[in-house]
Amino acid sequence: MESVIHFIQENIQMVYIVILMIFLGIEIIGRVPSVLHTPLMSGANAIHGVVIIGAIIVMGKAESGNYVALVLGFLAVVLGTLNVVGGFVVTDRMLEMFKKKK
Amino acid sequence: MESVIHFIQENIQMVYIVILMIFLGIEIIGRVPSVLHTPLMSGANAIHGVVIIGAIIVMGKAESGNYVALVLGFLAVVLGTLNVVGGFVVTDRMLEMFKKKK
Amino acid sequence: MGPSILSVCYIVASVTFILGLKMLSNPATARRGNLIAAAGMIIAILGTIFLYEDDGKRLGNYPWIFSAIIIGSIIGTMVAKKVKMTAMPELVSFFNGMGGACAALISIVEFDYLYRAHREVSSSFSDVVASGHYLAIIAGTIIGSVSFAGSIIAWGKLSGKFKDYSFKGQHLFNNLILILILVSAVYAYFSNTQFVNIPFFITVALALLYGVFFVLPIGGADMPVVISLLNSFTGVAAACGGFLYNNKAMLTGGILVGAAGTLLTILMCRAMNRSLVNVLIGSFGGTKAGGDEKAIEGNVKEISLSDAAMLMAYAKKVMIVPGYGLAVAQAQHTCHELEKSLDEKGVEVKYAIHPVAGRMPGHMNVLLAEADVSYEKLLEMDEANEEFKTTDVVLVLGANDVVNPAAKNDPSSPIYGMPILEVELAKNVIVNKRSMKPGYAGIENQLFYQPKTSMLFGDAKKVLQELLTELKNI
Amino acid sequence: MGPSILSVCYIVASVTFILGLKMLSNPATARRGNLIAAAGMIIAILGTIFLYEDDGKRLGNYPWIFSAIIIGSIIGTMVAKKVKMTAMPELVSFFNGMGGACAALISIVEFDYLYRAHREVSSSFSDVVASGHYLAIIAGTIIGSVSFAGSIIAWGKLSGKFKDYSFKGQHLFNNLILILILVSAVYAYFSNTQFVNIPFFITVALALLYGVFFVLPIGGADMPVVISLLNSFTGVAAACGGFLYNNKAMLTGGILVGAAGTLLTILMCRAMNRSLVNVLIGSFGGTKAGGDEKAIEGNVKEISLSDAAMLMAYAKKVMIVPGYGLAVAQAQHTCHELEKSLDEKGVEVKYAIHPVAGRMPGHMNVLLAEADVSYEKLLEMDEANEEFKTTDVVLVLGANDVVNPAAKNDPSSPIYGMPILEVELAKNVIVNKRSMKPGYAGIENQLFYQPKTSMLFGDAKKVLQELLTELKNI
Ligand SMILES: NC(=O)c1ccc[n+]([C@@H]2O[C@H](COP(=O)([O-])OP(=O)(O)OC[C@H]3O[C@@H](n4cnc5c(N)ncnc54)[C@H](OP(=O)(O)O)[C@@H]3O)[C@@H](O)[C@H]2O)c1
Ligand SMILES: NC(=O)c1ccc[n+]([C@@H]2O[C@H](COP(=O)([O-])OP(=O)(O)OC[C@H]3O[C@@H](n4cnc5c(N)ncnc54)[C@H](OP(=O)(O)O)[C@@H]3O)[C@@H](O)[C@H]2O)c1
Questions:
Q1: Which of C324, C335, C421, C444 to mutate to test the pocket of ligand 1 (most atoms within 8 A of CB)?
Q2: Between vectors from CA C234 to CA C230 and to CA C240, what angle results, nearest 5°?
């Protein structure tokens, strides 16, 4: 218990950011109509592709001899890009369906 | 410009908290019906009474010879308490009006 | 251990503020929301008193702290409990002013510490104080002072202590003060540490002045909007304190109120079909100046007291539309009497409540609740507009703008687009007011000229009393 | 200067994510919201590549980074552009799996660094690695792996590569794996630095296994819900990465998606009148087991193809209610043909779209858009329920639950309370399906037994083609 409280205090700002983001995440989509569930899911899917930043950092920091980091980092960047690019493109395609034609 | 960016980076977590709170503040009350405008204003008024924490700190840190801090601090705590206590009590009284009778 | 627990206390407080405010914006949970926020506040306060540590040193001066809190609590509770329902907005304004003053005082004390620490040596204040630190102090001082002075003026105006006051070029004057404040605040930062207190306190004085002149010219009816705006100012001032002490509860609570208060101000204006700028500059839609009022054709028909009483007594359903005039005349109790008397005669009586009837949001709810009118009898606008179709008599008591059909038919009207109570749907409309003068928006009302409508001139309270006697004689 | 600007880039990215998600939840702004979030993402990515510094050292390996990004972009764009509209949910699942794998890989590499740095000396891993750091790594690994494996299974199921697979006691088995994961994760932390890699990789393997067995037993129709849940898992995994690198963009983006995704999952379930637990355990309301289906009285009336064609040809207004069956039969194009043919005959034809018709939210919109049906012809549920009153013929094409009146009348029904398309308001109802078998919810439908209703049995595509030929002959 004590160590948990200590951990919270040490990372107090992070804890705040997490709590506030949780509230925001919930507030923001609270009123979404059901037709938009799929595009919203898809858009959110693209957003968590932000994990690619981590992959880029791993890749960029890898020393030339460290094959584990180089190979896995390379793979991670490819997969992360897939998530981001594919996610946004497919969401856009879906949403195209919902707009008024002509 | 440079110093602004520097300031932001140094207080990055604070900046995040501020931005997220702004979003939250706006999201949260976006759908309030007009009858509740007055109690909501009054409730928010009580919440900013949290400034009393600062007054308590000022008061509690004041050394016994420092009359400026003691007197102003004392005054600040009194006023802050007025804001908090009065604010919540008056809000409660208002809201009592809105509940179904019997 | 103490400071760690205190951090958790502050997190809890921040969360209760968010939750509380969220619940406050929904009628079903509003009261609980208020209590939750209050609970969080208590946790934050007690936590600060007992757990706060600065460089390992606890807070002292407990007797002072507790006596101040006790004094504040007693006065606050008493005032809040005693005040008349209709005087609540001015009370909110008063409490808001207290918060603003509190924020300003804190910053002043912190400034005083800095000043004392450095006044011995002669150097630029900017060399010894970090810009972020100074910014938090000076912003807290200025915003707190403006909020304090403005709120006190708003309070005075609403409780009839001060009158509207404006002079030509006041806007220019206000903007000038604002610029002077900024200049002297910056000047103070670059002053010599030995004399920095002079420009600092000039800044404080200017800020107080600005608060006064900012609120003075604004019409009394617009005070709720102004109070809401000052409320969000105080929120920002509290947040400055949060920066100063690196205190998350103050920071989050302050910013939350600052953001929500700003939005609420805008929503209030929107509910009255006005813009914020418009309220602050203080003219309604500019139509009055234009003078393009349409001549309204048609005659006004009066009705006698006895005829009005008769009409209502033999109706099946009567709907009362209360407005600002009812509040002015303090006729809510007499109105409730009338309702009971009709009820005894087997007439179904209800009230149609427009959201912005009166001079503050929820004014009518509060007013009628004070007179013990049962909550079930109050219909909201949409419900009421449904029920008018089956209503025999609508009695409009001192309301005007909220039943003005121009909001629906006349695109050139300043209130065009505002939802209204469509009383013309009923069979008969009786309108009570003292004259043919317009209401808040300053515009003519076509309703009074319609064949369905009959006017019953006179002070609302007097007319209602006379109606009551007539009814008893039937 | 670089890192400061990078912080600002990340703030901008976080704000665009919040705004983007907010705009995505409103039909009018959704598309713009998606683009805004994408713009923020690009800023964050470019900022990281060019401005990131660790102990004053910039990132290297640019050729690797750019080639990886280019490869990913090309494949991602191509796949996303080529895929058929109806295959979109599985594609989302696939991309989600990629994100999960990315999060897991990052954490694995970071673990590998720690392992290499300390494997020479023999001590407890917990002595050389802070608990917060390890927590971020192991949580990212586990959650990312579960999300990866689960998403791939969901993708495979939706695209028909895997079948549902479940065995008795699978729930127990799953919970067991879950416990094992936790145990081995904790065990790894307290292992000797020399062998810590063994329990760590066992944890990874178990997490992958859990992902597989978590999704395998869940019915194909419930996959959208599961994908949404895994989506929020990946969000949390990304947030772990944010902790690891103290990176605010990853943290905020990840948590935002984690929270919003969880709520979205719950909303999806609610739209189908089910609870999340219910979906994951995989039985509908438990009624099927109870077997208390009411015997439905009344006869089923069939209609011939020519009569049906005649009825529609001479109607003034026809409303088509598409459902899952239409999607299965891939009859959307033929349906559009029928609509045009009726249109030529002067019949007004519209589509009534139920929000959960089909097997994923928005399924029908996507399906009909693919067949180039004009958006104006699609009515949402509320509009449609208004229009049924003036409709002559409703043609129900492979829909069942969404037109089941039990949702309105029968409180014991598992779908009771779900809003439905009230087709009985129209003059005639023609229902096309292959048999009297129930739909997704597994319950009888009283609608088919009503005097207004006539059945037109057969595969939707075939029936529509035959109707078309009949129509041409009239
Ligand atoms: N609720 C809010 O938050 C708020 C805040 C600020 C402004 N407003 C605005 O205030 C207006 C409210 O509409 P409303 O219909 O309630 O009021 P109103 O339009 O201002 O009209 C009030 C009417 O009451 C009559 N009156 C005054 N004293 C009276 C008395 N003693 N006995 C009988 N009648 C009396 C006046 O006519 P005579 O002089 O002829 O008697 C006047 O026409 C709206 O325009 C709204 O936008 C609302
Ligand atoms: N939209 C979503 O997000 C989502 C996700 C998961 C679950 N659900 C659930 O799915 C249901 C959707 O309702 P619904 O009315 O669209 O579908 P449904 O209730 O599942 O009924 C589909 C009907 O189509 C018929 N059918 C199947 N293949 C056909 C073919 N080739 N030609 C003609 N008819 C065919 C079936 O009857 P025969 O076998 O007799 O032909 C079946 O009764 C709801 O219960 C909803 O809660 C929705």
A1: C324
A2: 145
Residue C464: other Cβ atoms inside 10 A:
24
Which of C357-361, C424-428, D89-93 is the least confident region?
A: C357-361
DSSP one-letter code for C255: H
Buried-exposed string B48-72: b where 16+ CB fall within 10 A, e elsewhere: bbbbbbbbbbbbbbbeeebeebbeb
pTM (2 decimals)?
0.88
Closest Cβ opposite residue D8 in set B8, B23, B27: B8
In sequence order, the 6+-apart residues with CB closer than 8 A to the CB of C3 are A9, C51, C52, C53
Q: What ipTM was reported for this prediction?
A: 0.86
**CB neighbours of residue D169 within 10 Å:** 9
Indicate the top mutation candidate among C223, C270, C356 to test ligand 1's pocket, ranked by most ligand atoms within 8 A of CB: C356
Touching chains D and C? (3+ Cβ pairs < 8 A): no
A19 to chain B, any CB pair closer than 8 A? The answer is no
So what's the pLDDT on residue D286? 39
**In this predicted model, what pLDDT tens digit does every residue of C12-67 receive, in sequence order?**
999 999 999 999 998 889 999 999 999 999 999 999 999 998 888 889 889 999 99
- What confidence tens digit (pLDDT) does each residue in C76-114 have? 999 999 988 778 888 999 999 999 999 999 999 999 999
The angle at the Cα of C215, spanning C93 to C68, to the nearest 5 degrees, equals 35
Residues 6 or more apart whose CB falls under 8 angstroms from that of D154 comprise: D90, D93, D215, D223, D226, D227, D230
Q: Which tokens belong to D198? A: 């063994």
* D367-396: average pLDDT: 90
Phi then psi for residue C457, to 5 deg, are -75, 150
Structure tokens at C161: 């202590």
Quote the ligand 1 centre to B36 CA distance (angstroms).
20
The closest alpha carbon to A45, from C245, D151, D194, belongs to D151
Q: Residue type at C460?
A: A
- Shortest distance between the Cα of B1 and any Cα of chain C, in A, equals 14
pLDDT tens per residue across span C427-454: 999 999 999 999 888 888 999 999 999 9
What's the one-letter identity of residue A96?
A: E
Diameter of chain B by CA atoms? 63
Q: Who contacts D239 (Cβ-Cβ below 8 Å, separation ≥6)?
A: A18, D250, D251, D253, D254, D255, D258
Alpha-carbon span D407 to D403, nearest angstrom: 9
Mean per-residue pLDDT, C322-340 = 93
pLDDT band at C171 (very low <50, low <70, confident <90, very high): confident
Between CA D457 and CA D464, with CA D463 as vertex, the angle to 5 degrees is 140
Q: Which residues contact C85 (CB under 8 A, 6 or more apart)?
A: B93, B94, B97, C366, C367, C369, C370
Q: Return mean pLDDT, chain D.
A: 90
Q: Is D100 exposed, middle or buried (0-12, 13-18, 19+ CB in 10 A)?
A: buried
- Spell D123-160 as b/e; 16+ CB within 10 A means b: eebbeebeeeebbbbbbbbbbbbbbbbbbbbbbbbbee
d(CA C44, CA C328): 41
Tell me how far apart the terminal alpha carbons of chain D are, to the nearest angstrom.
78
Among the options D54, D222, D401, D459, which is catalytic? Answer: D401
Q: Which residues contact C298 (CB under 8 A, 6 or more apart)?
A: C449, C450
- Burial (CB < 10 A; 0-12, 13-18, 19+), residue C3, is middle
Phi (first) and psi of residue C38, to 5 degrees: -65, -40
More confident residue, D165 or C416: C416
Q: Compute φ and ψ for D218, nearest 5 degrees.
A: -80, 135
Pairing status of strand C57-58 against strand C53-54: antiparallel
- C319 contact partners, CB below 8 Å, separation of at least 6: C349, C350, C351, C352, C379, C384, C387, C388, C391, C393, C394, C395, C423, C426
CA distance A72 to A94: 32
